[in-house]
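As a warm-up, study this chain.
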Amino acid sequence: MPIAPAMPRVWRAETKPHKFCPGCGHGLVLKMLGEAIDELGIQDRTVFGCDIGCSLLAWDFFNLDSVQTHHGRTAPVITGIKRANPELICIAYMGDGGGYAIGSQHLVNAAARNEKITVILANNTVYAMTGGQMAPTTMPEQKTETSPYGRDVALTGPPMHGPEMVAAITGEGAYVARGTISNLRQLKGYLKKALETQIAGRGFSFVEALSGCPTNWRTSAKETWEFIEQTMPVHFKVGELKTPAVTE
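Now compare it with the structure written out below.
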């Protein structure tokens, strides 16, 4: 009898519910990252590093080699892994507190050195895991646990604009963008371009994602999306801020 041809091996995608609060934006950012990794076919050589904060709940979210670091230290840990193993695709995932406060020196120095890693930062304008305190990205007049009357920029300064800073200090090969969970197709496109920049060895790549935190914002579903879609973009412009200068 003729032998039937071998059936192609099919990799079945497995999924599980995330551990974030209902309505949290982290799950959406991470889903887009997972789809970008799958579409680029780089799962077998990708290392995922996550920071302390709500982002730490992603430590077992992916079927990837993963590492969790101390608060604010994800960028240097991922930099070390990349330098020791240049063939790997290395991702540092963090929140605005880990990237723009305690970890700001590491973000600045990795960007200035044009390290060939990808940093993804979720900006929800508060320190979410510890109760909703004012963060570097808290907007003017925004109320938090530590700014109950609204952020006073005369006392605390304006919110941090991370992508604009990174774009200013990185080299020509860098990629910098700000996306939002209110436009997932665009956000995934930015994440893919960031990873492609690293794959090509051009330089540092950085994507900030405007995210939501209804638990600490104390907002309904409708109010949450209005805040993300209408209020946040007034202070944080969505789009690509720097694309690699590619030469033939």
